Sequence to fold (115 residues):
Amino acid sequence: MKEDEDWRQVREHLEEYTRAQVLLFKLGLTERSAKIGSSIISSLLVYIALLMGLVFLTVALALFIGELTGHNSIGFLSMGGFCILVFILLKTGRKKYKEKLTNQIINLLHEDDEE
Fold:
């Protein structure tokens, strides 16, 4: 009888330990997800503000070039060409930026492991 009682206690402790480990895993996953989510949202807000600034700057430069040349269409055409050139440059260097972003996400995921 004593042996059965001991095995029952071992089983109960093992179940409690397993529940605690699952809870710990869930908490860790939740914390990492929250960090990644907040990092993504804050980055998006910064990039949206930067994009808005670039749009206004581009329009202002297009109007300025149009004023210098006497034709607004030339100003907007030149700024459109400049934007297309920047797009092509970013598109060709995409692999380098993609790898850097991937490494940043991995570092963010494993940041807690180092502490």
The chain has one domain: 2-114.
